[in-house]
Structures are given as structure tokens and as C-alpha cells.
Write a structure and sequence with these properties.
Blueprint (H helix, E strand, L loop, with lengths): L2 H19 L6 H9 L5 H14 L3 H9 L3
Length: 70
Amino acid sequence: MTGNEEVKIVILSAIASWAVRSTDIIQESLVSFLVSGLKEKETLRKGFLRSLHAICKNEDAILKVTCYFH
């Protein structure tokens, strides 16, 4: 893993932590960003998936995330 990838993963973790506590930041652009990350290399893709998993532990967050998929 490169230093750049490590930084991205730390940022993803911070975003997920913030989104779990304040679902107000969950907007279409954030959901699009997280979904687009699923096309990244394996290491980053896992980071994006971990972030989505962490966000979806909050029931209110799940509702906000899923409303952007319709």
C-alpha cells in the first residue's frame, strides 16, 4: 500500500465516523463518492466498503444512503 492509499483510507474512516454521528452530511454527492470508490484497486475498494459498512450501522444513515439509489 502506498502512502497516498493510506491517507485515502484514513480520510474514508474519518468521513464514515462523522457520517455515523451526523447523518446530515450524507448527501447524494457523498453516496456517489463512496460508490465510485468501489471501482478502485483492491486495497482502496476495501476501505470504501468498510466506510459504507460503518455508516450503515446507523439506521438513520441507512435510510439516507438508500434514498439516493432510487
